[in-house]
């Protein structure tokens, strides 16, 4: 049984990691793109997105939250894998219908590992990552004098050391180019660029803007960037070659979305546009410094919300993306956000600095995350009112399936999960309870039960 010390609501291991893993920004490792080609690279438009029923879109979004998030999201994948659904070729697994997975911070490890390993994940992920003391290993590596020469006098930082460690224990040196041949769902993980505040998504569409080739970027480096909590990990560095490969942002937007998107789109798309325009300045933003994706999207919904907003505004996008062909569209939002209890209100003296720093970043992230879940439901209602080219309403049924600790009925059980730490070490028992609870909450979700009924699943759990 692994022990965990907590002081003032703050995990001591995380506080120690903050001391030994902090450092200056690391040097980039992403190569330039010689010439922009919208048919090249790891992007949704090049992906065989139709897995299973081509009229059924299934998305899984995985939030941040360290090993807690990784285990909770893994439990959802296990439950989807256990669920049998009818297909033209006989019974199949609901997991095989997942078209898109998004991952943030801790959730990015599960998302990328599933994209890389597929079925192999369910034989190896527990031992290789979930039930390993990742946090202890990282601290031990940094305190090991043999590691010091790498981190002295150059731009290699302790966070680069973490990325190399993730490669050894989980990703085996795989790159985004390797995912092209795996046949799994398209996987989109994200980090936050600290200078501009922009969300950097690890797909070729975003890297086109940077005139960089994502195919050579290691999955471990993306996971390290997405989970680089400020104050605990140093930023991960990337090069910005914008303007050197012939990419034109405005021409590309018009090609994909049509000329009317600028005047029809609303706040989220406009905000994203401002972020991308800022990144086009490769003089002011020659070097990009990426940290935890949770700062810009802690539940992994923002990219999906922007896509839904464009779908509302652009008939061309609905046609090109195949959205008009869908009969069912389901989003399983795996929200492992927790709000650990503290006794600060019973003491006159204020909390310590580390505790306040973690709380100051966590509160706005959590509030923004809950808002995104509600926005998803708003878009579901808006899309159901859209009419197609024939003047008829879009014949698509939506399922917004939100899985979070808030849905736990038993107060003591809810308190247990909400007090699990945001760290990269949990006990085996905690990991197993998270996996079991994820499956249970999914089975109990009314929207999920409705989806299974509509899919004709026999013995629908309830």
Number of helices, counting only DSSP H or I runs of 4 residues or more? 19
Mean pLDDT figure: 80
Note the overall shape.
globular
Name the poorly predicted regions.
1-26, 262-268, 360-365
Major sheet size, sense and barrel closure:
8 strands, mixed
Distance between the termini: 34 Å
* Strand residue percentage: 5-15%
Query: Considering DSSP H and I runs of 4 or more, what fraction of the residues is helical?
Result: 40-55%
Count all strands and give the number. Answer: 12
Structural class: alpha/beta
Radius of gyration: 22 Å
Can I get a quick summary?
The chain has 462 residues and is of the alpha/beta class. The protein contains 19 helices and twelve strands. Helix 16 links the parallel strand 11 (328-335) and strand 12 (397-404).
List keywords for this structure.
462 residues, alpha/beta, eight-stranded mixed sheet, two-stranded antiparallel ribbon, 19 helices, 12 strands
Overall description:
- With 462 residues, the chain is an alpha/beta fold.
- Helix content is 44%, strand content 13%.
- The protein has 19 helices and twelve strands.
- The protein has helices spanning 12-21, 66-82, 106-117, 121-130, 134-143, 158-171, 176-179, 204-209, 219-226, 249-257, 261-264, 267-279, 294-297, 302-313, 315-320, 353-383, 411-418, 428-444, 446-455, and strands spanning 6-7, 10-11, 56-62, 84-87, 90-93, 98-104, 186-193, 199-201, 236-239, 287-291, 328-335, 397-404.
- Strands 3, 6, 7, 8, 9, 10, 11 and 12 form an eight-stranded mixed β-sheet that branches.
- β7 and β8 form a beta hairpin.
- α2 (66-82) runs parallel beside α3.
- The radius of gyration is 22 Å and the shape is globular.
- The two termini are 34 Å apart.
């Amino acid at each position: 049984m692994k022990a965990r010390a907590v002081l003032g609501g703050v995990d001591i291991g995380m506080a120690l990691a903050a001391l030994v893993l902090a450092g200056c920004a690391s040097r980039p490792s992403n190569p330039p793109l010689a010439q922009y080609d919208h048919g090249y690279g790891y992007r949704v438009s090049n992906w065989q997105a139709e897995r299973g029923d081509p009229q059924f879109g299934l998305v899984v979004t995985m939030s941040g939250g360290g090993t807690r998030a990784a285990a909770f999201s893994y439990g959802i994948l296990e439950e989807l894998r256990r669920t049998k659904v009818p297909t033209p070729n006989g019974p199949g697994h609901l997991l095989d219908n997942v078209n898109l997975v998004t991952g943030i911070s801790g959730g990015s490890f599960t998302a990328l590992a599933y994209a890389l390993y597929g079925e192999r994940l369910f034989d190896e992920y527990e031992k290789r990552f979930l039930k390993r003391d990742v946090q202890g290993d990282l601290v031990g590596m940094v305190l090991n004098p043999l590691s010091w020469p790498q981190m002295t006098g150059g731009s290699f930082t302790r966070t680069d050391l973490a990325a190399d460690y993730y490669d050894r224990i989980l990703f085996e040196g795989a790159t985004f180019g390797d995912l092209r041949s795996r046949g799994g769902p398209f996987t989109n993980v994200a980090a936050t660029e600290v200078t501009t505040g922009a969300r950097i998504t690890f797909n070729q569409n975003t890297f086109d803007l940077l005139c960089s080739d994502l195919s050579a970027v290691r999955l471990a480096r993306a996971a390290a960037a997405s989970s680089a909590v400020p104050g605990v990990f140093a930023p991960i560095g990337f090069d910005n070659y914008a303007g050197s490969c012939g990419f034109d942002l405005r021409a590309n937007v018009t090609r994909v979305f049509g000329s009317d998107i600028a005047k029809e789109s609303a706040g989220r798309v406009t905000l994203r546009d401002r972020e991308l325009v800022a990144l086009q300045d490769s003089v002011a933003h020659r070097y990009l410094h990426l940290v935890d994706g949770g700062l810009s999207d802690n539940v992994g919904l923002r990219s999906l919300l922007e896509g839904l907003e464009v779908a509302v505004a652009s008939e061309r996008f609905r046609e090109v993306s195949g959205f008009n062909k869908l009969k069912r569209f389901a989003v399983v939002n795996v929200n492992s956000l927790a709000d650990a209890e503290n006794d600060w209100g019973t003491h006159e003296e204020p909390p310590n600095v580390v505790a306040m720093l973690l709380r100051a970043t966590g509160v706005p992230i959590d509030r923004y995350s809950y808002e995104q879940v509600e926005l998803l439901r708003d878009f579901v209602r808006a899309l159901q009112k859209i009419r197609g080219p024939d003047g008829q309403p879009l014949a698509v049924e939506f399922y917004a399936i939100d899985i979070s600790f808030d849905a736990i009925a038993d107060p003591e059980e809810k308190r247990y999960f909400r007090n699990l730490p945001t760290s990269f070490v949990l006990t085996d028992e905690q990991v197993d309870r998270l996996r079991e609870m994820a499956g249970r909450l999914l089975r109990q979700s009314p929207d999920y039960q409705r989806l299974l009924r509509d899919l004709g699943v026999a013995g629908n759990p309830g």
